[in-house]
Amino acid sequence: MRNLVLASALIAACAIAAPPGGSGFPGDMGRPFDGLPLPPGPLPPRPPQRPIPSGPSIDLAVEAAKAIVEACKGYHVSVSIIDSAGTPKLYYVPDGTDGSHAYTGFRKAYTALTFKMPTSQVGPLTKTDPSVAAKVKADTNLLTFAGGMLLEAGDRIVGAIGVSGAEPSAKDEECGLVGIDKIKNRLK
């Protein structure tokens, strides 16, 4: 009963404190939730847009992802594609596939981009190069299972693809190479 009385008192206080046009939420104070009002006078100039990193177009990314899933028929794989700055371009999670594979795919793509080589080469390198092993251990986004591959246009790296969900992970890489082969001549 005491909790009911306290809840009723809180509701009443919110209703009294809500200014006209406010939401009734105690922290609203009648302001719109999209920010504070603009200051008077002219607005400052917009900062210049930062350069857009290179990467596959969304159409090429989707085409590669579909080819990868088709090549890995019988496995529940997800595909993650990132641009040259490591920013996600596409997470492709087919129906019936666990969404966690998209994040694992991102980690594989990010690892390939970080080391500028397929993850199937990074794993063995951790056993012979202590600096690579230390870097992988220090960054939880790095993952050395096979399935992370670079996207290249000529001699430039324009992004990376990560595939996750097939076993063993060498199958992830095999399917990923099918998708890369499908779009590699059209990457810019």
Helix/sheet category: alpha+beta
Poorly predicted ranges: 1-19
According to DSSP, the number of beta strands is 4
**Main pleated-sheet profile:** 4 strands, antiparallel
Radius of gyration: 24 Å
Structure description:
With 188 residues, the chain is an alpha+beta fold. Helix content is 43%, strand content 14%. The chain has six helices and four strands. The longest helix is centred in the first third of the chain and has 16 residues. The N and C termini lie far apart (68 Å). The N terminus is likely disordered.
Summarize the SSE layout with pairings.
Layout: H1 2-17, H2 58-71, E1 78-83, E2 88-92, H3 100-115, H4 119-128, H5 130-138, E3 148-153, E4 156-164, H6 169-183
Helix pairs in contact: 2-6, 4-5
Write a concise synopsis of the structure shown:
The protein is α+β, with helices and mostly antiparallel strands and 188 residues long.
Features:
alpha+beta, globular, 188 residues
